[in-house]
Structures are given as structure tokens and as C-alpha cells.
Amino acid sequence: MKKGVAVIECVQEIPCNPCVAICPFQAISMDGINGIPIVDFNKCTGCKQCVSICPGLAIFIIKTKDNKAHITIPYEFLPVPAKGDIVTALDREGKERGEGKVIQILKRGKTSVITIEADKKLAMNIRNIKV
Fold first, then answer.
1. Is the pTM of this model over 0.90?
2. 3-state SS string over the chain?
3. What is the distance, to the nearest Å, from the Cα of residue 54 to the centroid of all Cα atoms in its chain?
4. 26 and 38 in contact (C-beta within 8 Å)?
């Protein structure tokens, strides 16, 4: 995958659309204000704007190349890891799935947007980290 793409795991049908409003490429749409966000992968560039704006912390950016994955997650815990740190990768249930190396940290408001590099097999399972 040449570029990262947004993966949205929002299941709540509530009035919420900041991801739609912030996307500079109009890659996210909803069927009404209570709809579930849908990503047009042809338009999505993986710019990460939507990751920090989602109040449900339900948007991730996944990029794979060779046997590695870059997984970008919203992170609102302390301490915030540093670039180069090795962290424990967690799945949706908080179970340890392996390790990842922090390769980028962006601070956007109260939410840090952290990208880790991990084994490609874990790309669709990693949804948080433990420092």
C-alpha cells in the first residue's frame, strides 16, 4: 500500500460528523448526521486529520509495506512515548499483541496521534499501545 488509509471503527449511530467536516479530500461521508462514517479509499490520502478529531477515538491510519505496518492511533494517556521508544501493541480488548516502535508523534489538542511500526500481520489488530 503506497499510502495510508483511514480505517473507521465507529459503530455508534449518534449525531456526530467531525471526521466528515475535517477531511480535506472529502474522503469520508455519512448517510445523514446519525449515519456510520464511510471512507472512500480512492480519495483518502492518510493525512491523519480525522484521527485526532474523532471524539470516540475510532479512527486509525493503516499503511503496509513489505512485512511492516505503520499504524497511526489516537492516544490520550500519560506518559506520551517518545519517538524511537519500543511500546507494547494492544488489540481492541487490551490484550498484548506484540511490540512496536514509535516512529512519529503529532500533538493535536488533547489527543496525541502516534504512529508505530509493527509486524504487518498485526496491522488490523493493533488499536492502542502501552508505554
1. yes
2. CCCCEEEECCCCCCCCCHHHHHCCCCCEECCCCCCCCEECCCCCCCCCHHHHHCCCCCEEEEEEECCEEEEEEEECCCCCCCCCCEEEEECCCCCEEEEEEEEEEEEECCEEEEEEEEEHHHCCCCCEEEC
3. 10
4. no
In whole angstroms, give the CA distance from residue 91 to residue 126: 5
Tens digits of per-residue pLDDT, 5-33?
A: 999 999 888 999 999 999 999 999 999 99
pLDDT digits (tens, 9 = 90+) for 42-80: 999 999 999 999 999 999 999 999 999 999 999 999 999
50: cell is 480525522
Distance CA 117, CA 14 (A): 33
Retrieve residue 52's grid coordinates: 485526532
